[in-house]
Design goal:
heterodimer; A: alpha/beta; 9 helices; 12 strands; globular; B: mainly alpha; MetI-like fold
Chain lengths: ~260, ~220
Amino acid sequence: MKKRSHKAIKLVDLKKHYGDNQVLKGINLDINYGEVVCIIGGSGSGKSTMLRCMNFLEKYDGGEVQIDGKLIGYGSDAQGNFQLAPSQIVQKDLSEVCMVFQQFNLWPHMSVLENVMSPLILVHKFSKKEAKERALKVLNKVDMAHKIDAYPGQLSGGQQQRVAIARSLGTEPKIMLFDEPTSALDPELVGEVLKVMKSLAQDGMTMVIVTHEMGFAAQVSDKVIFLAKGLIEEQGDPKILFTQPKSDNLKAFLSTWTERNSGIV
Amino acid sequence: MFDFSVVLKYSDSLLNGLWTTAWISILSILIGFVLGIILCLGRLSSHTFIQYFCRTYISAIRGAPLLVQLAIIFYFLPYWGINIPPIAAAIIALSMNTAAFQAEILRDGFQVIPLGQKEAAWNYGYSSWQSFRYIELPQVLRNTLPSLTNETIDIIKNSALISTIAVTDLMRITQTYSSTTYRPIEFFVTAGVLYLLLTSCISLLGRYIESRLTTH
């Protein structure tokens, strides 16, 4: 693999507020290429906001987001003033970052195949034939090649999410962000999506995953980040973090989670 | 008592009138659609002045009778030294009117598209034009087609008002012959049937396109 001199993602004192509500209070985080990082935390802890800042779907208002060493979203104008960068530049800097959304966000008027081909043709200037080849390849990887002519509305949530992952894979991203990718799914459909994500992790994809699937986080991630009230409260190896939590917040968070699941067996 | 043979005698003129009504209405709908998209985008724009301008225009048009708008265009343009034939005045007034209504229909169509779909497009590097053209517009057209068909039918019916500014549309012809022949009932019933025929065609066409688009 090509040696990279920069961190895949670097957050420096990242801050974000909505009105009086300070959602992120100064996050510092380094993510290396090839790493799988899971972000956990209660609702309102700022985990989705943090993820959305990484590909500038949210404009942060303090600190820095760096992708492969490049500052995202802001730049200096001719007078040296720090200001918002034009959309095209931000998009270009983020061309190797893809997000998979909780609500899939497939385009409902396009078939599965068209969904995957569209970014390739419109943005990456593939010919129709090349785009179709690539699309079939990635749809095969997520085991959806048998549904290429279906429309998103005809698919189950799990199938839609796999198509959404394929759509991202088509553009050959180096970094993939997952925003609660299984939270909108019926329980029996979660497994098929996690399976695809696991195989990506094994292929060495750099992944940042906001998730409530603790079992998955424990198995797949190199590092788990626990966010509470807009700050990283604890982070580290999942084996240690899940078994020997230090902070009270994390202990409380993990015990609610075990309680919820213990009733079953 | 009723004698429709007198109508048959003037069938050529009536069909000419129907043709005038049809092409003026449909041309106005098409011009109004383009203006409507522009107005709608202006209405959704974050630019305060543009937004208020479009909002005011839409309220003004929707809040005043078409008959008044027609009269204003027809009488005021010559007053400013712009001389245009009645047909042009009719097309301008109908287009300006339907643009406001279509803008509101389209605005609803744009607003129901989940933000996430546009975020996904942005994330993949789509320009705002590509996102508009390939993600939003096709869905908006599909979702608003029934309302746009209704608006077309409304404009065809409302176009009867252009007879007041001397356009020889179906209504004007009907009025002329019903008074010269003293057979108003026969002529107005015929006109009603012809309008119904035209609007039914539009309605069928709309449903046909809809069925073609909703293959899923």
